[in-house]
Design goal:
This protein has helices spanning 261-269, 299-311, 329-349, 374-380, and strands at residues 4-7, 12-20, 23-30, 56-58, 65-68, 71-79, 88-90, 96-103, 111-115, 129-134, 160-168, 178-183, 190-194, 200-205, 209-215, 222-227, 235-238, 241-243, 273-276, 279-282, 317-322, 357-361, 382-387. It is mainly beta. It folds into 3 domains: 4-134, Immunoglobulin-like (Sandwich); 160-243, Immunoglobulin-like; 261-387, 60s Ribosomal Protein L30, Chain: A (2-Layer Sandwich). InterPro entries: Bact_OuterMem_StrucFunc, CarboxyPept-like_regulatory, OMP_bac, OmpA-like, OmpA-like_sf.
Length: 389
């Protein structure tokens, strides 16, 4: 990590600077404050705009530049983060990495400033500016030792080829299905490829961190994570997936009823309640009064939601918290947000990736019953979830 004299935001760090080809390449890491216990630090940088989901968004200003020795070097492009006016939503506690390309610094410039924009009190967007970034960029550049050998251009785009098969884990025979590959630093960015009739697949991707999910009819899904972000040259990877066939249940004779009706009734009672298409209510999720801590008798219904997420790896949800109108509206909104966050944390602790679960807190703004009665207030204190994919 380069030495930096000063910066306008300590949520964002410059982790590395490279001078390659025609570019100065700056690597960033961004992470907003993680919740700790019940004391959450939620900051909303866009006070004058509608708050969406977590309320946090990031983007990069294409009018940015770096300067050194009195000369400006223009912005070229960025990866892993959108350009203004587009915005990327982020979640507290999760780390986001992105790369920004500028024009190549002249040899000998070993200290520069990176200016994204001028911060004004009236503006809702906070720009990231870095002053006195120290790098190794000597005036005398060492020439290549062997100019006869041809080498790939350093500024040439690197692409990785992933090739493999879907294979039945019991018979070792190829099967027909598909492979979904998702960019870990951006949950919305994904694609998939179908196999050939012989179970083979191939596709090209950029060197980033990915999760691969292989699926086929009649088989359990399987997934693998690969961090390819540090690769700096194009190459081929062989990655086959072994899928387990789904075992068919043996039906018992209809005359045999081993499960008492009362048990089945209890299971039905603890299922999430569908209130409209793709939207469910968790009516058996409980918290301490006025607090956001989950009570243990919530786990049975949350495990029902957990099973839904594990059965369908493509399912992404938004957890929504609601309160009654007792107390200040701002406190109710904070409480509903913290409760939704804690539901999300429980699901993550059971193995669900964080990028599949967004969360919102609506406070007392969306009642479903009369807040003038205790029964109505009880109904308004609720947690719901919406399936978005």
């Amino acid at each position: 990590m380069p030495e930096i004299d000063d910066q306008t935001s300590y949520e964002t760090d410059i982790t590395k600077v490279e001078i390659r080809g025609n570019n100065t390449i700056v690597y960033f890491s961004y992470q907003i404050t993680q919740a700790s216990g019940n004391n959450y630090q939620f900051q909303f940088p866009y006070q004058n705009q509608p708050r969406r989901n977590s309320g946090y968004t990031i983007s990069f200003n294409p009018k940015s530049y770096i300067n050194g020795n009195g000369k400006r070097f223009k912005y070229v492009k960025c990866t892993g983060i959108p350009e203004l006016p587009e915005e990327k939503e982020v979640v507290p506690g999760e780390k986001y990495r992105f790369i920004v390309y500028f024009e190549k610094l002249d040899p000998g410039i070993e200290t520069f400033n990176l200016i994204e924009g001028k911060n004004r009190p009236e503006d809702s967007h906070k720009y990231w500016n870095f002053y006195g970034v120290h790098i190794n960029n000597p005036l005398v550049q060492v020439p290549p030792t062997d100019t006869k050998k041809s080498a790939p251009r350093e500024d040439e785009e690197v692409m990785l080829t992933i090739k493999g098969k879907l294979i039945d884990s019991k018979t070792n025979k190829p099967i027909v299905g598909k492979v979904l590959y998702r960019y870990d630093f951006d949950a919305q960015k994904s694609d998939s490829v179908k196999t050939t009739p012989t179970g083979e697949f191939t596709f090209k991707i950029k060197p980033e961190a990915y999760t691969f999910i292989a699926s086929a009819k009649g088989y359990e899904n399987t997934q693998e994570s690969m961090d390819l972000s540090k690769l700096d040259k194009s190459q081929l990877f062989n990655q086959s997936f072994y899928l387990n066939p789904i075992e068919k249940e043996i039906k018992k004779p209809e005359t045999v009823k081993e499960t008492p009706k009362v048990v089945e009734s209890k299971k039905e009672e603890n299922k999430p309640i569908m209130i409209e298409e793709n939207k469910f209510r968790l009516d058996k999720v409980y918290f301490e009064i006025g607090e956001s801590k989950l009570l243990p008798n919530s786990y049975e219904q949350l495990n029902g939601l957990l099973k839904m997420l594990k059965d369908d790896p493509k399912m992404n949800i938004i957890v929504e918290g609601h309160t009654d109108n007792v107390g200040e509206a701002s406190q109710n909104k904070r409480l509903s947000l913290e409760r939704a966050y804690n539901v999300r944390e429980y699901l993550i602790s059971k193995g669900i990736p964080g990028y599949r679960i967004q969360f919102k807190g609506y406070g007392d703004t969306k009642p479903i019953a009369d807040n003038n009665t205790e029964e109505g207030r009880k109904q308004n204190r609720r947690v719901e979830f919406l399936i978005i994919e």
